[in-house]
Design goal:
- This protein is elongated.
- About 90% of the residues lie in helices and about 0% in strands.
- It has two domains: about 30 residues; about 70 residues.
- By secondary structure, it is mostly helical.
Length: about 110
């Protein structure tokens, strides 16, 4: 019985040491590549923000123009604003997924 407990402890310690080694390697990698630190994160936030804002504002502007030219019972502005927002969110989701995939591939390479 005590052998199985000791065996489990050594397995847990091995798993823990692997996790610690992986985190230490990641920390060393980040120190070697400081460009992917804070500035990278701020740039990514800006990219995501603009990828949502631009289609939303373009949709609203087009909707205002259509409402002025072709008034009707439904608001073009509201429909195109929501459409632009949805497209912007899908665009941001695409960018985040792409960057996440690249970061995971970088992590697997190291």
């Amino acid at each position: 019985m005590s052998e199985s407990i000791e065996n489990k402890k050594s397995t847990d310690q091995t798993a823990l040491s692997r996790k610690i080694a992986a985190k230490a390697a990641l920390k060393l990698k980040m120190q070697r590549h400081p460009a992917q630190g804070v500035w990278f994160g701020l740039g990514m936030m800006g990219l995501i923000g603009w990828s949502v804002v631009v289609p939303t504002l373009l949709g609203a502007a087009l909707g205002i123009w259509l409402d002025n030219r072709h008034p009707g019972t439904h608001s073009w502005t509201l429909m195109l604003l929501i459409t632009g927002l949805v497209l912007g969110c899908l665009n941001a989701w695409h960018w985040v997924g792409k960057e996440d995939k690249e970061m995971r591939e970088d992590h697997d390479d190291d």
